[in-house]
Design a protein that fits this description.
homodimer, alpha/beta, about 25% strand, Carbamate kinase, 20 strands, 11 helices, globular
């Protein structure tokens, strides 16, 4: 009898070469031997996608998105066929499916399609025959039979959506790291792998700079309450569970520290303190597709104010230009661009019910003589903009302060 | 108004790199500019298929044929997407289809599937919109939605089948040679490109060693009377038309000379001249999947005979072993294997109505002191087995004798 269905997703680095594909096959088979039904979602081999993009670039720098999907979807198709062969070699039954064959029906937004439904009949049929079903991640098909791709993090999304549709008992996301850490171990060697974290905390951490999983698949997992297990494809150790609620003997206030160095700060000085001024600026930035992140309005002198905001570094030149134009139109003062900033954030659902967390954060930074330039808070996070050169010191000090070390 | 529909097929060497893909796009667009509707069939880029096979071999030396089709079909999918991008770059509308999207429905014989029908609706729809339609060659889909491939020469078959289904006015097979030659120009530099040749002659030449097109697609073209134009993708010169009947002022007797050095001759000596002896030998060879080509039984001494036959060189060891076993069972004499043979053939529909062609062939060989070891004839061809070292001399002498030179 089946012990239930497990969906396992393996990213590109987990299937980067023949040996790794064989490792994945061995792991999948070990679950089959334990009595689980298995649906395996696979990304394209290592750098295949980048190579195909480079090839397309040589032909057309502005390729049709439909044709790009046609091209890139071959990457996962190669992976699923090879993984099926590797599982056969171990003496187990397996069958591979493209996104289309796996019933992943999407809308028609090529290169960033959204799954509209999954027709799981073919997968269920093969599972019933006792086969391990391997589905190409990242891709689907629209109602016109065109091949679509789901955009960044698309394979995770395929896995989560299949886990929901097939009512899986578990959805395992295999990656090249051991799980989610309290902070980046390259910055703080004492960083600890988190055993369990809530969807909300993970979403907050992803939006603040943690790069293990894309927000999109976490959101879908949260919506349908699909428990995720993020773990390493190179070890048997358990990784991090991402779930609805984490029960602990003693509640942890701060669960993780994130760092984002990819933003720039723009300050518009001496803005006339009149209604509609901020609206005009941020509308123009939105029109130019600049995504503004933090916004702080410092009330300074009477009838005048400074507005500071952060944007992705890649957009900072464009945003500065727009801001200068608006400044002259509304009679504001100088526009200052600062590329040397970093955002340090603390994240934890425990903050909701604990006082003094913000004060604790500010105190640590002050003690380390780190000036805070902007502050932004949410229900479960507090972020500070500081000078970039203090970033690592800040992360380590906060990690220590909130007791996250091993 | 459209001038009619042309189906164009480009093989792997025609799309081996970015520059060649751009050349193909330019050629396709030149036809569009002249007012033709276009369906373009493309093979996988250069060595892609071989590379994928090598990759599969590393994982499983005996891969599932279904998974092999899943894997190999990505090759043409890459080609069609890139060609669509290249055509877009030239400012023309184009859309790519996999075999499945193109409605190529096959049986389930993976790696050598047969087309059972074509659902051309989607292609017709896009043609109506004025788009150049690009279809992946070599592949289709069975009724269970599994991807299939058509085996060797499969892309030609896709093109011919589409030309028939869509009622194309012409089906152009682009290749890396200029067309069909009276004989291999590497052997006889005076070899001449044939302007037009019948399906039957082409089939005979293909079966006798000419390697430009596989018999399978010529058979389908013949069955549905689809005129084929075999020509070079690197030049604008017309190639060779393959059609039902060639009208000429003066009928040509011999249209081409072929040479095949890939066979070996086996002779079973002193066979008791009793019914059922030959049957036993060739049944056993058939059971072992050895394909026997020419068979000659020389009536020699009374109540004893020699039987000679040719087999592909790759099978000669196996065939010799079987023949030796049969020899001892039936009380026959020695078994002789000769790997140093060649088959020279002359082909032409004109032979049917001309006398003395065989005599002419034998005379030329005799004049050149070339001994004939076996002879075999069909309605439109005569083949002689000779010693391999005389092969090129024979080809050149026959080419001269039958007036095929430029």
């Amino acid at each position: 009898m089946s012990k239930g269905l497990v969906v396992q997703k393996f990213g590109g680095s987990s299937v980067a070469n023949v040996e790794r594909i064989q490792n994945v096959a061995t792991r999948v088979v070990s679950y089959r031997k334990k009595g689980f039904d298995l649906v395996v979602v696979v990304s394209a081999l290592g750098d295949t996608t980048d190579e195909l993009i480079a090839l397309a670039d040589k032909i057309n720098m502005n390729p049709s998105e439909r044709e790009m999907d046609m091209l890139l979807s071959t990457g996962e198709q190669i992976s699923v066929a090879l993984l099926a062969m590797a599982i056969h070699k171990l003496g187990f039954e397996a069958i591979s499916f493209t996104g289309a064959q796996g019933g992943i029906i999407t809308d028609s937004s090529h290169t960033r399609a959204r799954i509209i439904r999954i027709n799981g009949d073919k997968i269920k049929e093969e599972l019933k025959k006792g086969k391990i079903v391997i589905v190409a991640g990242f891709q689907g098909i629209n109602l016109n039979q065109d091949i679509t791709t789901l955009g960044r993090g698309g394979s995770d999304l395929t896995a989560v959506a299949l886990a929901k549709e097939l009512n899986a008992s578990s959805c395992e996301i295999y990656t090249d790291v051991q799980g989610i850490y309290t902070t980046d171990p390259r910055i703080e060697p004492k960083a600890r792998k988190i055993k369990a974290i809530t969807y909300d905390e993970m979403l907050e951490m992803a939006s603040l700079g943690a790069q293990v999983m894309q927000s999109r698949s976490i959101e879908v997992a949260k919506k349908f309450n699909v428990p995720l297990h993020v773990r390493s494809s190179f070890s048997k150790n358990p990784g991090t569970m991402i779930i609805k609620e984490v029960k602990k003997m003693e509640e942890v206030v701060v669960n993780g520290i994130t760092l984002n160095k990819n933003e720039a700060k723009i300050t518009l000085c001496n803005v006339p303190d009149k209604p509609g001024v901020a609206v005009k600026l941020f509308e123009e930035l939105a029109c130019a597709q600049v995504s503004v992140d933090m916004i702080v309005q410092n009330v300074g002198h009477i009838r005048q104010t400074d507005i500071s905001f952060t944007v992705p570094k890649a957009d900072s030149a464009k945003a500065t230009k727009i801001t200068k134009r608006v400044a002259s139109e509304i009679g504001a003062g100088d526009v200052l661009l600062d590329n040397d900033i970093a955002r340090v954030s603390i994240v934890g659902v425990g903050m909701k019910s604990h006082h003094g967390v913000a004060a604790g954060m500010f105190g640590v930074l002050a003690k380390n003589k780190i000036n805070i330039e902007m502050i932004s808070t949410s229900d479960i996070s507090i972020s500070c903009i500081i000078k970039k050169r203090f970033a690592e010191t800040a992360v380590r000090a906060l990690h220590e302060k909130f007791g996250l070390a091993k």
